[in-house]
Amino acid sequence: MPSTHNRDKPWDTPDIDKWHVDEFKPEDNASGLPFAEESSFMTLFPKYREQYLRTIWSEVTKALDKHNIACQLDLVEGSMTVKTTRKTYDPAIIIKARDLIKLLARSVPFPQAVKVLQDDVACDVIKIGNFVTNKDRFVKRRQRLVGPNGNTLKALELLTNCYILVQGNTVSAMGPYKGLKEVRRVVEDCMKNVHPIYHIKELMIKQELSKKPELANEDWSRFLPMFKKRNVARKKKAAPDKKKVYTPFPPAQTPRKVDLQIESGEYFLGKREKKQNDLQKKRDKQEEVSEQKNKEKLRGYEAPEEQLHENKLLKKSKKSKKRSHDEDEGSNKKPRVDSD
């Protein structure tokens, strides 16, 4: 239901950035007391990330200590845990710490993942594994999102001001909220068989239109491209193999080369005769090939069938001559006299 509380808001001016988040300082905690309960989050990580996490864990600890957040790496269980301490003053920083370990588990490098602790940076981990059941089709669509030499992904990063990483069955994105919304839309549509280039074209046009202040309060739909659906011919399924009739008896033994030679009488010939036979076969084969080639050459010298085109003017003149001749004959005929 739309709001009916429509009043003038003189303080709500266009220059206000409504997405801006002010920094939370220790003096902003009104009570000055530690939190009543401890909050903690745990994330599992794959086996191949174990070595990398072990090397950078000291840096992760330093980054979280600045915000008074405790962290723990469990290599036996394969998990990372973050929790608040008695010195933690920012109630939202534990959510940021949870996002940090989630990004580290999804193969985002630490120098990039640590930026999520900033107030103006958010993250989104998009699951893409459930969109397509066929594995080959899933790999093709995921590669389509990356593009040749990563060009499609790079263009998307520049247009949305986000960092994007495609890894396994997830796409990790970091950046402003507005950009993350666009990234999710493009990724989900790509897995639904909509090529990302269409969205990139749309985003480029929107970026150019946003630079023109005279179009700020106008509808942009007339400027955006309208793409038609194309029915691409799908790969035909191979015909299923017909079931063979079951026979309990084994198949008949195929004749050996020696058996075939005995049948033809070649086995009993001497070496010289065998050589002569082989040469004769080769000559016969060569003659056949040469005859075929000669026939193909002679085809080029054959005259093509000509289509006869009748001249309509000559046809008309012939008809008119025939008519005049018939009329002359009719006038020269003697009148018939009946005999009494």
From TrEMBL:
<dbReference type="InterPro" id="IPR004087">
    <property type="entry name" value="KH_dom"/>
</dbReference>
<feature type="compositionally biased region" description="Basic and acidic residues">
    <location>
        <begin position="324"/>
        <end position="340"/>
    </location>
</feature>
<protein>
    <recommendedName>
        <fullName>KRR1 small subunit processome component</fullName>
    </recommendedName>
</protein>
<dbReference type="InterPro" id="IPR048548">
    <property type="entry name" value="KRR1-like_KH2"/>
</dbReference>
<dbReference type="Pfam" id="PF21800">
    <property type="entry name" value="KH_KRR1_2nd"/>
</dbReference>
<feature type="region of interest" description="Disordered">
    <location>
        <begin position="269"/>
        <end position="340"/>
    </location>
</feature>
<dbReference type="Pfam" id="PF17903">
    <property type="entry name" value="KH_KRR1_1st"/>
</dbReference>
<keyword id="KW-0539">Nucleus</keyword>
<feature type="compositionally biased region" description="Basic residues">
    <location>
        <begin position="314"/>
        <end position="323"/>
    </location>
</feature>
<dbReference type="InterPro" id="IPR036612">
    <property type="entry name" value="KH_dom_type_1_sf"/>
</dbReference>
<dbReference type="InterPro" id="IPR024166">
    <property type="entry name" value="rRNA_assembly_KRR1"/>
</dbReference>
<comment type="function">
    <text>Required for 40S ribosome biogenesis. Involved in nucleolar processing of pre-18S ribosomal RNA and ribosome assembly. Essential for vegetative growth.</text>
</comment>
<dbReference type="GO" id="GO:0003723">
    <property type="term" value="F:RNA binding"/>
</dbReference>
<dbReference type="InterPro" id="IPR048549">
    <property type="entry name" value="KRR1-like_KH2_euk"/>
</dbReference>
<dbReference type="GO" id="GO:0000447">
    <property type="term" value="P:endonucleolytic cleavage in ITS1 to separate SSU-rRNA from 5.8S rRNA and LSU-rRNA from tricistronic rRNA transcript (SSU-rRNA, 5.8S rRNA, LSU-rRNA)"/>
</dbReference>
<dbReference type="InterPro" id="IPR041174">
    <property type="entry name" value="KRR1-like_KH1"/>
</dbReference>
<keyword id="KW-0687">Ribonucleoprotein</keyword>
<dbReference type="InterPro" id="IPR048550">
    <property type="entry name" value="KRR1-like_KH1_euk"/>
</dbReference>
<keyword id="KW-0694">RNA-binding</keyword>
<dbReference type="GO" id="GO:0032040">
    <property type="term" value="C:small-subunit processome"/>
</dbReference>
<feature type="domain" description="K Homology">
    <location>
        <begin position="122"/>
        <end position="192"/>
    </location>
</feature>
<comment type="similarity">
    <text>Belongs to the KRR1 family.</text>
</comment>
<keyword id="KW-0698">rRNA processing</keyword>
<feature type="region of interest" description="Disordered">
    <location>
        <begin position="234"/>
        <end position="257"/>
    </location>
</feature>
<feature type="compositionally biased region" description="Basic and acidic residues">
    <location>
        <begin position="269"/>
        <end position="313"/>
    </location>
</feature>
<dbReference type="GO" id="GO:0030688">
    <property type="term" value="C:preribosome, small subunit precursor"/>
</dbReference>
<comment type="subunit">
    <text>Component of the ribosomal small subunit (SSU) processome composed of at least 40 protein subunits and snoRNA U3. Interacts with snoRNA U3. Interacts with MPP10, KRI1 and with ribosomal proteins RPS1A, RPS4A, RPS4B, RPS8A, RPS8B, RPS11A, RPS11B, RPS13, RPS24, RPS25, RPL4A, RPL7B, RPL8, RPL23, RPL25 and RPL28.</text>
</comment>
<keyword id="KW-0690">Ribosome biogenesis</keyword>
